[in-house]
Amino acid sequence: MFEENKKLYLEKYGFEHLQLKAVLFDMDGVLFNSMPYHAKSWSEAVTKYHLDMSPEEAYEYEGRTGKSTINLLARRSWGRDATEQELKDIYQEKCRIFNSFPEAEKIEGAFELVKKVSEDGFQTVLVTGSGQVSLLGRLNRNFPEMFQKDLMVTSFDVKHGKPSPEPYLKGLFKANIHPWEAIVIENAPLGIRSAVAAKIFTIAVNTGPLPDKKLLCEGANVLFHSMPDLTSNWEMLRDEIS
Ligand code: MG
């Protein structure tokens, strides 16, 4: 099933082989079911400032910084960038609404997959655009001893967020590996663009409302429709790429 995808990937970059050493996990929409809350809080917050974004549109921008999302909407509705004050106020409101929601649950199948990956002896690396201070505690509670602090890339580690390749390149650097020794698991179009730009074999998991083509057209090498779907195919995938 994956043989052809693998062949196309190797040909594209001129790599000789894939030899898996680490799995790079995105967080929102891959490990935690936090995207519905992000989408709702974005939509509600910007509406208060007479900007317009449906919850579904928020999924398209997942991974962008708050500032660039607000400016994109401001240019569209106001014909100009937001001022520093507007950026601050709108983003604060978004965070206030987001924090009023309960803590996001693990995505079904995520725990089982991370457990399999760890038990198979591969490194688990977290690569997220999030910069929440509570992130480490939340990860440890939900995925105990499955992620190490020195193998995490958060918004504090990078200058440019996704879709820049920087977060995934930093993940490779921290794990001390080459692109052909890793795979990425991503749910968002811009996250996929970032991983593909870092030349890493990218597995898209469509856990949100966007059509598959939005993920595939960013260059994902394989697509699954849910985390349980990926988890139950893990052994086959692993044997193909290690
Ligand atoms: Mg995500």
Structure keywords:
single chain, 242 residues, alpha/beta, Rossmann fold, DNA polymerase, domain 1, six-stranded parallel sheet, 6 strands, globular, binds magnesium ion
What is the topology?
Elements: H1 3-13, E1 22-25, H2 35-48, H3 55-60, H4 66-78, H5 84-100, H6 110-119, E2 123-127, H7 135-142, E3 152-153, H8 166-175, E4 182-186, H9 189-197, E5 201-205, H10 212-216, E6 222-224, H11 227-232, H12 234-241
Parallel strand pairs: 1-2, 1-4, 2-3, 4-5, 5-6
Helix pairs in contact: 2-5, 4-5
The structure holds magnesium ion.
Produce a short descriptive summary.
With about 240 residues, the protein is of the alpha/beta class. It has helices at about 5-15, 35-50, 55-60, 65-80, 85-100, 110-120, 135-140, 165-175, 190-195, 210-215, 225-230, 235-240; strands at about 20-25, 125, 150-155, 180-185, 200-205, 220-225. α2 (about 35-50) crosses α5 (about 85-100) and α4 (about 65-80) packs across α5.
